[in-house]
């Protein structure tokens, strides 16, 4: 018997008593993990009557599953509920620490239990996208033969990060970030429930709203911050979590910012217009406000990618590359570190030469198409890779530009009604100046002028 058991007063306690005492010391987010399907917040699209996730948890569908979604959406919870509902043994592995040896050990034990007592095993693998191809392949036989019921969780798109054979043997279910009201219900339950804080603290409305902003759809993040604030409130003998106390506890200033209200649109608009106006300092200010307010970094990244073409375009073609890289970094890294990537992209766009020529070009072209200026594709440009194309005159007389030294030939590309119509008008700013000098020469050669 270890000395620790005497110190904790567990000597002589039953297994149930030990489990209760250990659970009482668990983090708030663990204690508040839903014990039944009815306690799960969000994911209504997967938990309705007859929905695949409900059928899986209720044991009606003995299929392996990939749970794909952001952190704090209940992936581990749902895996645990699957094992409880079906009476299966539950084994959890993390792809961060487990290797092929550990996977095979679990599978071997699952085989022995299945043969010896008929007991099935639910194998939960967190962050399965971090497994190598070899590690994922080690699961295939056991999953296919249903030696284990695999429940794998990933924050990455499994169609890019999981091997195809494993995907084909699993249901892929996408979980969504919790809404603000979903996070609110999780927080309020944690404050009042005996598993949580049991009503020992009072959470003021402003503090509750700030917790929701901090969560960003992640229930676990909100409960972690709530627990820290509750400890501080109880230590002060007042038991009240105010906005000031919460700010000092989580070391973040509250930003008065409603993501669904006018402030969301006003700050986003000011952010884009500051970039367009080349005011890098103002742009960084609004970026910081969005991040501190709990704005989804993917939303910010999308706006930057759009803006790179909308207001910079060919004046600095590398701007789009920077923004796409920043968007990928957001997916790969997440907050808080991806704030650096968003800042770099913001600085690049704000300091880049500006041109809206790409925007006006596609708008003009789409306007013509909507008004019916379409016209037939010239015969020499049509597809000639099928039987009978030659008889129809398709692809006949096409001039291959690479056959001439200049790489440009005189040839009609536009439909008859649009010959001579210019959509793209480059500016003389930045890298677009070179395009502006070259484009008239290209048009003259192409049109035989």
From TrEMBL:
Span of domain AAA+ ATPase: 61-177
Pfam families: AAA, AAA_assoc_2, MgsA_C
Molecular functions (GO terms): ATP binding; ATP hydrolysis activity; DNA binding; enzyme activator activity; single-stranded DNA helicase activity
InterPro entries reported in the protein's UniProt record: AAA+_ATPase (IPR003593), AAA_assoc_2 (IPR032423), AAA_ATPase_RarA/MGS1/WRNIP1 (IPR051314), ATPase_AAA_core (IPR003959), DNA_pol3_clamp-load_cplx_C (IPR008921), MgsA_C (IPR021886), P-loop_NTPase (IPR027417)
UniProt keywords, alphabetically: ATP-binding, Nucleotide-binding
Highest taxon of source: Bacteria
UniProt-listed GO biological process terms: DNA synthesis involved in DNA repair; DNA-templated DNA replication
Entry's family note: Belongs to the AAA ATPase family. RarA/MGS1/WRNIP1 subfamily.
Protein name per the record: Putative ATPase
């Amino acid at each position: 018997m270890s000395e620790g058991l005497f110190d904790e007063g567990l000597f002589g306690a039953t297994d149930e008593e030990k489990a209760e005492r250990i659970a009482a010391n668990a983090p708030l987010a663990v204690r508040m993990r839903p014990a039944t399907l009815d306690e799960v917040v969000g994911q209504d699209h997967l938990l309705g009557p007859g929905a695949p996730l409900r059928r899986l948890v209720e044991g009606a569908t003995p299929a392996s599953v990939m749970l794909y979604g952001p952190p704090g959406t209940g992936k581990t919870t749902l895996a645990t509920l699957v094992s409880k509902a079906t009476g299966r043994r539950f084994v959890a592995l993390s792809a961060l620490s487990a290797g092929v040896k550990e996977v095979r050990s679990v599978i071997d034990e699952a085989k022995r239990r299945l043969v010896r007592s008929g007991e099935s095993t639910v194998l939960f693998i967190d962050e399965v996208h971090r497994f190598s191809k070899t590690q994922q392949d080690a699961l295939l036989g056991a999953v296919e033969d249903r030696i284990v019921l695999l429940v794998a969780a990933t924050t990455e798109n499994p169609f890019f990060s999981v091997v195809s054979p494993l995907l084909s043997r699993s249901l892929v279910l996408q979980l969504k970030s919790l809404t603000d009201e979903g996070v609110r219900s999780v927080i309020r339950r944690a404050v009042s429930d005996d598993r949580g804080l049991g009503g020992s603290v009072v959470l003021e409305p402003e503090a509750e709203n700030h917790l929701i902003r901090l969560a960003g759809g992640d229930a676990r993040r909100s409960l972690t911050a709530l627990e820290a604030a509750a400890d501080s409130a109880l230590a002060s003998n007042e038991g009240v979590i105010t906005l000031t106390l919460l700010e000092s506890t989580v070391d973040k200033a509250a930003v008065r910012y409603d993501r669904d209200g006018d402030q969301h649109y006003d700050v986003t608009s000011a952010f884009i217009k500051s970039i367009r106006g080349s005011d890098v300092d103002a742009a960084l200010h609004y970026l910081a406000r969005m991040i501190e307010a709990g704005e989804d970094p993917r939303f910010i990244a999308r706006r930057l990618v759009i803006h790179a073409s909308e207001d910079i375009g060919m004046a600095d073609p590398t701007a789009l590359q920077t923004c796409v890289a920043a968007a990928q970094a957001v997916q790969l890294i997440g907050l808080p570190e991806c704030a650096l990537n968003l800042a770099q992209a913001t600085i690049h766009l704000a300091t880049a030469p500006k041109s809206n020529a790409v925007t006006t070009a596609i708008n003009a072209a789409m306007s013509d198409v909507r008004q019916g200026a379409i016209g037939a594709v010239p015969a020499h440009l049509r597809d000639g890779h099928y039987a009978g194309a030659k008889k129809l005159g398709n692809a006949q007389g096409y001039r291959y530009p690479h056959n001439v030294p200049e790489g440009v030939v005189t040839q009609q590309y536009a439909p008859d009604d649009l010959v001579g119509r210019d959509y793209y008008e480059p500016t003389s700013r930045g890298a677009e100046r070179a395009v502006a000098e070259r484009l008239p020469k290209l048009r003259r050669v192409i049109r035989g002028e």
